[in-house]
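Troubleshooting log. The previous structure file for this entry was overwritten by mistake, so regenerating from the original sequence record. Sequence copied from the archived sheet and checked twice against the printout by T.R.
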Amino acid sequence: MYIRNYIVDLCSKTKNMYEEFSSSMLLGGAGTTPQRIIISDKLVTFKQNNGARSFFLASHSVTISRNAINGIQIHGKLFGCDITITTNGGASIHAQCFSRDDAEDIQRILLGN
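Regenerated output below.
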C-alpha cells in the first residue's frame, strides 16, 4: 500500500516526487508500528517506530541518498517480500513484510525502469 503525493513548490513551480510504502500486517508486519520506506527526489528513508515493543519507545530511521544506491534485492517469501537496498558507502536498508507489488514498485522507482 503506498501513498503517492506530488508536492508543488510555489516559488519555483516545480513538482517534487514523494512516495511512501508501508509494510503489511497481513503479510506478517507489525500492525501498530509498520515499517515505512519513503522515497523523494534525492533521498530514501526507512522508518520504524518500535512502539510498545521497545523498553524506551525508540524509533529507528535510516536515510540514504538515491545517488549512492548500487543495488536492490527483493527476497520473496511464502507471504510477502523483504527488500534490501545497498549503497556504495556500506549503508543498507533492510525492510520486511512488504507486498510483492510494493517491492516491485520500489525497485522500479529507484532503478528508473
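Residues 2-111 form a domain with the PH-domain like fold (CATH 2.30.29.30). Archived copy saved in two places this time.
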